[in-house]
Amino acid sequence: MDAVNAAEPFPSVESRLRAAPPHALAATAGTLLAELFGAREVTLLLADYGLSVLQPVTDMPHTGDRVSAHDGPAGTAFTSQKPVVEVTSDPATELIHLPLTVRGDRLGILSVRVPATAADPATLLSLGEFATALGHEVATAGRDTDLYLRARRTRRLTLAAEMQWQLLPGLGCARREYVIGAHLEPAYATGGDNFDWSTSADHLTVTVTDGMGQGIGASLLTNLAVSALRNARRAGIGLADQAALADQAVYAQYGGRAYASTLLLRFDLGTGTVSAVDAGSPRLYRVGETGIELIELEAQLPLGMFEETPYEEQTFHVEPGDRLVALSTGVHGTRSATGDPFGERALHRILGATRQSPPHETARAVVAGLIEHFGSKDLTSDAAVVCVDWTGRAVDTGRLTPEPH
């Protein structure tokens, strides 16, 4: 079927993708794209855990050539989240790089070589819709096969890091009211740092958690704390009580010998009112029209430090255009060789320089700046960054705003 009519059969295309065995999505996509667009070459590339490279999905891991996730045509498509048409040495074909993104979580790139005559705007739109459909299937298939998780690795994860990545919700999320981008380092050896989020019709909850210690011990502690927070949140109770119940769970297990620092935020999507509980050491910055400010919250005890600690909520307000950046202790507390804390001048400089960058790139830039400030990629503490760009809900005009893919 030619590309002109490619948009018509998308329900059947999605059905064929869903019917493919979990490990065969790339091959099935290649077959479909050849039928629909005359594609001669199709490559599915996934971003590695450190968001530094894009690796092709192959039956045998690491058998294809990886490319940069930031430079070159594929890297540009990944960072900009826009299709990039690469003119190749073959004048009869063009290579189109399409973002593979699911509800704001950037998975990778779908690269498709098509006849040069087919690279028109309508075809680009149809290919983009195909990439979105494929992205959703890849995300679902990850439950049933290790193929896509293995393709994300440039080397073996530590056991603690394996546990943490299974706990994370992803590296991004988007709705019309907000866009979230997050980053975690050391990606292949992280232990106690975690971020989490959940959205409902009218609220967004975001947490940043830092379990004390290193390695498997820190990962087990953080798993308990995050699971307890999720359990309380899913019971429909308030933010302060979520912290209190998680505190009890951690104390019951560790008796005060280990604890987890946590920042809990709950956004009202309609009003921009944010409820917050600062249970420990993560910090929160606002980047807005008036500059960069540290949001001062009442410091309360970390989860599990003492038995039955009471917690109280505070509130503040965000305006459309505001950016919130939450940092674990391993970010704002890290010092350079000369003793300068990263959370002062260096952080402010990076947040100011990346004000117009997407949240994903801002989170990555903060960690890259932290590594430069520390002087080594071998960070002594985990570093978690969550960046939230707030849009809020516009006045209802009777027109629907489309949701992100």
From TrEMBL:
Pfam families: SpoIIE. GO terms for molecular function: phosphatase activity. Residues 175-390 form the PPM-type phosphatase domain. Coiled coil: none annotated. The keyword Acetylation does not apply. Keywords: Hydrolase. SUPFAM superfamilies: GAF domain-like, PP2C-like. This is SpoIIE family protein phosphatase. It comes from Streptomyces broussonetiae.
